[in-house]
Amino acid sequence: MDKKIFIEPLFKNNPISVLVLGICSALAVTVKLEPALVMTLSVTIVLGFSEAIVSLLRKTIPNRIRIIVQLVVVAMLVILVDQILKAFAYEVSKQLSVFVGLIITNCIIMGRIEAFALANKPWPSFVDGIANGLGYGIILIAVAFFRELFGSGTLLGYNIVPASWYIKNGGFYENNGLFILPPMALILVGMFIWVQRSIQKELIEE
Amino acid sequence: MDTNNNFYTIAYATLMVIVVAVILALASSLLKERQERNVELERKQMVLRSVHLAGKANDAEDKDSYIEQQYAKYITDSSIIENGKELILYICKLDNNKKQYIIPLKGSGLWGPVWGYISLKDDYNTIAGAVFDHKSETPGLGAEITTPAFYKQFTDKQIFDNSGKYVSVQVVKGGAAPGSKHQVDAISGGTITSEAVEEMISRNVNEYLNFFKSNLENN
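Above: the input entities. Below: the structure tokens describing the complete assembly.
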């Protein structure tokens, strides 16, 4: 049971390419590989714990204010993560600063809490949160890999394309500027969805 | 138990807000001291980097105390009064007894504040070094102002042209003219942030020009 909860979000039921949740941040943080990794880690942690907490509270939450309760839990976790990083990993927290707001509003978090944590026990909810965070991360990292490689000629900040290849140094190569602009992220995500749908025929609508 | 009646809902909301507030307040006050120390250390490191004296900080065994030591050794906090306004000016005394003047910069980028430090040699014209940082520029685009590829370009540029006119440093989209003493390359895809850096340098340094002029005349 737990194994299926963990495996499915990674590919078969991936939050980005199948559920189409969390697209906005997938466009914003994938210019470089490093912020994509940091974002994956933070979303995974916040998602896991917020699903676990909401699941623990699920029988007590008044239905009329349940969205507010969920948001408060998520916002509190994000602020805590941010505060702890600021105190103990200042460099990481600086990179993350832009994305903290994005984590709170990340549709995957509300989506998974509503769809899973409200109906399941804490442990499966926690597993579901971690798995969905990782599923989200796989797409993010794949997109960021191509965008950084073709857009900047680097990976994790290290040069991959030899400097002598560039036209300005007498070579033949030029970085593709389209890759560092947001539309290319959308095109890449679209291509991943295309590949996935041609593998998983059952996803194709009539 | 009926979790949908009004009393329960209100009581639940109230309790939840109090619990969350207590947790966050506790976290904030427990971590505040460390956070402020990090901010202060970062400022010191940036000041040092603008005069190329923080180079070994990342290799140092204890980075924090290395920065504190270097700062205490080389940098003097100082300020000048200009038009009734107090302006911060850090003075760096190098090993060869030459002085460099570090000006703090503040501006606004595309999404939030940008800031940095720029240091001038004792001719008050040649830039010894510059560093920049930002709150929330786009990673990979505007945020590239923090990379050496961008800020190293400023070293050895001049803020006055040959006729002695203040021109600051221009950040040029599409690439600086080769050999130019007053131009650097802008960041592709980060034009607004690049322009913000240009404006920030021009405006902040401008405030110190009278002081530099009178210093030059007195020598």
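Note for the figure: The first strand of chain B starts at residue 75 and ends at 82.
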